[in-house]
Amino acid sequence: MPTNILEVRNIYKSFPGVQALRDVSIDIISGEIHGLVGENGAGKSTLINVLSGVHRCDSGTIYLEQEKYIPKSPLHALHEGINVVHQELKLAETLTVMENIFLGHPPLTRSGLIAWETMKQKAKELIMSIGVELDPEILVSRLSVAQKQIVEICKALSKKAKVVIMDEPSATLTPTDMERLYAIIRKLQKDGITVIYISHRLEEIFKICDRVTVLRDGCKIVSLPTAELDRKKLISLMVGRELGMEYPKTRVKKGDVLFSVRNFNMPNTLYDINFDIHEGEILGFSGLVGAGRTELARAILAADKGAKGELSLMGKRYSGTSVSAAVKKGIGLIPEDRKAQGLVLGMSMKENISIVNLKKAQRFGLLSSKKERSIAKKYIEALKIVPNDESTVVRTLSGGNQQKVVIGKWLNADCSVLIIDEPTRGIDVGAKQEIYKIICELAAEGKAIIMISSDMEEILGMCDRIAVMREGHISGVLDAEEATQEKILDLAII
Fold first, then answer.
1. Residue 172 has pLDDT above 80, yes or no
2. Which of 39, 25, 34 is nearest to 2 (CA)?
3. What CA dihedral angle connects 221, 222, 228 and 234, to 10 degrees?
4. Which of 138, 336, 411, 463 has the highest CB neighbour count under 10 A?
5. Residue 155 contacts by C-beta under 8 Å, 6 or more apart in sequence?
C-alpha cells in the first residue's frame, strides 16, 4: 500500500479581508507526480507558501513522512526537503552553474575554504543524475530559460529534496524543452522524489501527473487520479460551472488594410519582415522561443531601437522612431511580461489605466482626480475587473485582472492597432475566456489585433490568419481554415 509523504489536514489561512485557504486537506503519495490546479485566487500559491515556510497557517496540521511538520521559514523547509522551483527563476545571473547549485552551502575544505574541484564534480554528478548535459562552469546569464530551470532543479537535489514543487514550469518553454522537462520529472519520480506540479496548461496535467487536486475559492474540491478526468470535467471542477466554447472566436468581415509593415529589419534580430493587417482582423504570430516575435512587437512600437523599414497606418507612412510617436498614431503593446513592462505594480488601477493618455484625465492642464476615477471606472466596468474599486493597488490583483488593467490602459489610449504578446500566460481558464471575449469585441469594433502566443491551441482557436516566424524571418502565413499544429511546426522548424 502506498505511503503518504505529505499530509495536509484542515489548513486555514487568511489575510486581511481574504480567506485564502479554508479547511484544506490533501494527501500527497510518496513518489507520485501530483497536479495542483485552480483558477487564479483559488489558493494554490498560498498552499505552496504554507508548505515551503513563507507563511504560517492559522490552524491545521501538516505531516511530513508521518512526522508533524511546522515550517518556520523557507530555509527550514529546504532543510526538511521541501523545495520550490518558482515560475520566476531565482538564480544569480553573474555566478556559474555550480555556484548557483551550491549557493549558501558550498563544499568546504578542512581549512574552511570553498572546495572548488569538489563543487565542480558534485555539480556534474547532479546534472548527469537527471539525464542532461550542462557545463557547470558556464555563467547562468548565458543559459536559456530551459537550462536555467535545470539549474533550479539541481539546486533542489543538492539539498536532498524529498518533495519538489514546480510552479508553472512551462511558461516560457518550447515544445522540445517541454519534452525534456517531462523526462527530467519522470527521472525524479523514478529516483523516489515526489513532484507537485502546478500549471494552467491542462494538457500538461494530463500528460505528466498521476493524480490531481482541484482548489476553488480556497477550498479543496477533489483529489482524483488523472485517468478518471477529462479536460471538460476538470475545467468544470475548477470554475464551478460549464464554460461552453473554450475559444469564443467570432469571424468578423475584414475591412480595409489598417496597418502595413514593409522591408522591416533589425540587426541580428529581424530580417525582411512584410505583412498587412486589416480592420477587424486578428493576426496571430507563432514560432518557437527566440524566433523574433517579441522583438518584432517591440521594434514596431520603437521600444527597442535600431529597426529600419516602412510602417504605414491607413495607407499613410509614418516614422516609427519613438514609443510616443507610435502611441499617438494609435498603436499599443500589451507586453509579454505584464508585471515588469506593462504595469506600475505599486500604483492603483486608476493611475495605471490613465498613465498612457494623461491628457484625457486633465482639467485646465492639470491632472483631475475626478476625471481619472471616471475613466478608470469606465474600463473596470467594461472589462469586469475584480475588485471594482479603482483605488485598488494593482499588485494585489490576480494575474487575469492585472492583464485586464493593461488592456484598459491601451483602450484608454484609443488604439486602432493593438499588439498583444502572450495574452493569457499564467492566467486561469475562466479568466482566459474573458480575455478572449474582449479581444473578439475589439476586433468586432474594427480594431486590428496582432496576437503573439506560444500556445498553439490559442493561436489556432482565435486567429483569422497565422504568421509563423523562424530565426527572425516570417517563414509562412496560414489562413485559419488551413492551419494545423503540424503545419505551424513545419514552418517553425524548417
1. no
2. 34
3. 30
4. 463
5. 83, 100, 101, 103
pTM above 0.70, yes or no: no
The H or E element containing residue 237 is helix 231-239
Q: If you average pLDDT over residues 295-313, what whole number do you get? A: 91
268 grid coordinates = 541580428
**Could you read off the pLDDT of 192-247 as tens digits, one per residue?**
999 999 987 888 899 999 999 999 889 999 999 999 999 888 888 887 765 556 67
Residue that the C-alpha cell 484625465 belongs to:
361
* Nearest-angstrom CA–CA distance, 246 and 335: 23
Residues 414, 416, 421, 422, CA torsion sign: positive
Cα 159 to Cα 60, 87, 197, 359, 380, distances in angstroms: 27, 20, 19, 55, 46
Using DSSP bridges, classify how beta strands 270-278 and 316-318 pair: parallel, antiparallel or unpaired.
unpaired
CB-CB contact of 426 with 44 (8 Å) = no
Q: Which residue has the higher pLDDT, 67 or 181?
A: 67
The whole-angstrom separation of Cα 485 and Cα 494 is: 14
Query: 31: closest CA among 54, 59, 2?
Result: 2
